[in-house]
Design a protein that fits this description.
CATH class of the largest domain in chain A: Mainly Alpha
Mean pLDDT of chain B: 93
Structural class of chain A: mainly alpha
CATH topology of the largest domain in chain A: Rna Polymerase Sigma Factor, Chain: A
Order of helices and strands of chain A: HHHHHHH
Low-confidence stretches of chain A: none
Strand content of chain A: under 5%
Largest sheet of chain B: 4 strands, mixed
CATH class of the largest domain in chain B: Alpha Beta
Shape of chain B: globular
Largest sheet of chain A: none
Shape of chain A: rod-shaped
CATH architecture of the largest domain in chain A: Orthogonal Bundle
Oligomer: heterodimer
Number of domains of chain A: 2
CATH superfamily of the largest domain in chain B: Methylated DNA-protein cysteine methyltransferase domain
Distance between the termini of chain B: 45 Å
CATH architecture of the largest domain in chain B: 2-Layer Sandwich
Low-confidence stretches of chain B: none
Strand content of chain B: 15-25%
CATH superfamily of the largest domain in chain A: RNA polymerase sigma factor, region 2, helix turn helix motif
Structural class of chain B: alpha/beta
Number of helices of chain B: 7
Chain lengths: 169, 195
């Protein structure tokens, strides 16, 4: 429980600042948090408020800064998420040609979305592509490991790459 | 106010109540207050609960008035509100001399039965007239309790509307008044009870 100095501030200015914050953030739960932050912060800084200065304007400043901080943080978070999503869709080098990989044996987080799509390919395409890209097998080796012919392995890898190239450029 | 204004207003009030509850532990129906700052008898504070008007005080400023309300209602939120505009309009009519009676509902809970009886008798004294502390005590059923009647008036929570200014000493002197004797004299002259 906090002293009545905070109640006094809330009684006098609470309603006006609640309206102000609702206009700035347009989400009642966020506005409720910001309102509480504003008055807690104001109460904590009350002793630094010079006597005779405009208490109301001061509260407006605290509330506006809290709302702007919130909006900026939200925007930064949204941008970071978007960047991350874009990165996940970065095409790996092996997508450009069908040269055997080897450099990409460790899953690269930037290619998360590509690998998620690989997981959804038909079984033989998925296995052939994985052997080609991750284990750097040539087509004879893939045929030996999977059964079937080298030509069949090549067809499976090409079909897989064709599907992926359509979605990731 | 348009319906969307009303919805916005209600949502904003809800936020203030959440803040009160979370930060101060005060919850439930708020005590609403308003100020009248340019009356002939000075600065006036009004406070109401749903049951009616609880305070009409002569005050020195907003902060001391709100602090008094916070002390009188230690577990309630307190909120500045225009819900008291009808009371303010009645008081403006009174100060303009257009009407000397009030329709505002007052809430006298928290007072003793004797205090309520005294204040009830006080309301019957019409504008332009006055009575004395001992006459009032007699009407309240305790003829020898002039001083107790004076104390009951001193604790009148709604000045002007319960017109304790219309009660004088037996010798015709003004006695006391929460708003100061100048205010008491002004009110009596305004109502035509004094020259």
């Amino acid at each position: 429980m906090v002293s009545d100095a905070l109640s006094l501030l809330l009684a006098k200015h609470g309603l006006e600042l609640a309206r102000h914050l609702r206009r700035l953030v347009r989400d009642d739960d966020v506005a409720a948090d910001l309102l509480q932050d504003t008055f807690l912060r104001a109460h904590g800084a009350l002793s630094r408020l010079r006597p005779g200065s405009n208490e109301r304007a001061w509260l407006y400043r605290i509330a506006t800064n809290a709302a702007l901080n919130h909006i900026r943080t939200r925007a930064r978070e949204a941008a970071a998420l978007e960047r991350h999503a874009a990165e996940c869709r970065t095409p790996p080098a092996w997508l450009a040609d069908d040269s055997p990989g080897g450099a990409h044996t460790e899953p690269d987080p930037r290619h998360t979305a590509v690998w998620a799509r690989v997981a959804a390919l038909p079984d033989r395409q998925r296995i052939a592509l994985t052997l080609r890209v991750s284990d750097a097998c040539d087509y004879d080796e893939i045929a030996r490991r999977m059964g079937g012919t080298a030509a069949g392995a090549r067809a499976n890898v090409h079909q897989a790459l064709k599907t992926l190239r359509k979605e990731f450029r | 106010m348009t319906p969307s204004d009303i919805a916005e207003d209600r949502a904003a009030r809800q936020l203030v109540r959440r803040a009160f509850e979370r930060l101060t532990g005060r919850s439930g129906e708020p005590v609403l207050y308003a100020l009248m700052d340019d009356t002939p008898v000075g600065l006036i504070g009004l406070a109401a609960v749903p049951a009616g008007l609880r305070r009409l005080d002569y005050i020195r400023g907003e902060d001391p008035f709100v602090e008094r309300l916070l002390a009188l209602f230690p577990d309630r939120p307190v909120e500045r509100s225009n819900a008291l505009d009808p009371v303010r309009r009645e008081l403006e009519r009174y100060f303009a001399g257009r009407r000397f009676t009030f329709d505002t509902r007052v809430d006298l809970s928290g007072l003793t039965p004797f205090q309520r009886k005294v204040l009830g008798e006080t309301v019957k004294v019409r504008a332009g007239h006055y009575t004395t502390y001992s006459q009032l005590a007699a009407k309240a059923g305790r003829p020898r309790a002039a001083r107790a009647a004076g104390n009951a008036l001193h604790d009148n929570p709604v000045a002007i509307i319960v017109p304790c200014h219309r009660v004088l000493r037996g010798d015709g002197s003004l006695g006391g008044y929460a708003g100061g004797l100048d205010a008491k004299a002004w009110l009596l002259r305004h109502e035509g009870a004094l020259l």
